[in-house]
Write a structure and sequence with these properties.
Blueprint (H helix, E strand, L loop, with lengths): L2 E2 L4 E4 L4 H9 L2 E6 L12 H10 L3 E4 L9 H13 L3 E5 L4 H13 L4 H10 L8 H11 L1
Parallel strand pairs: 2-5, 3-4, 3-5
Antiparallel strand pairs: 1-2
Helix pairs in contact: 1-2, 3-4, 4-5, 4-6
Length: about 140
């Protein structure tokens, strides 16, 4: 269910409370929810995931991303969360795509090379081409 982007970063489609326990078993110390509340009737509410995470000793942060795209505050919030994480991170959304795209933008904003990020994403089954120009732009600011 979890796809590995790096040794420290996992992404997933919508998780439930049972997946939080599985994440804890895999050493996840932070869960990042990139899904807006009420996006679909079948999603587990963020408050339930947060409660399960806290019960499992896992930190939780919500950085919702709609299909409208990414804002600078989201990239900054994701980069800050990743920077502060002391163990593995699990980011999730409906399919894992928005989490992967936001991870790539966050890492590019810290100076990671887009080609390396694209390879890591591709190895997990994700395509970063929708944010290639944005990665170049935010990486330019990091230099």
């Amino acid at each position: 269910m979890f796809k590995k982007l790096t040794d420290k970063i996992l992404v997933a489609p919508q998780i439930d409370c049972a997946a939080v326990a599985a994440a804890a078993e895999q050493g996840v110390t932070l869960i990042i929810n990139n899904r807006p509340e009420d996006e679909s009737a079948d999603q587990t509410p963020g408050a339930e995931i947060e409660a399960a995470a806290k019960a499992a000793g896992i930190a939780y942060v919500a950085i919702p991303v709609t299909h409208a795209g990414f804002a600078e505050w989201q990239v900054t919030a994701m980069a800050d969360a990743l920077d502060k994480a002391e163990g593995k991170v699990l980011a999730y959304c409906r399919s894992g795509t928005r989490s992967t795209l936001l991870w790539a933008l966050a890492r590019a904003s810290r100076g990671d090379h887009p080609a390396v990020l694209s390879e890591q994403a591709a190895d997990a089954g994700y395509d970063l081409s929708p944010v290639t120009a944005m990665m170049d732009m935010v990486r330019g600011r990091a230099s």
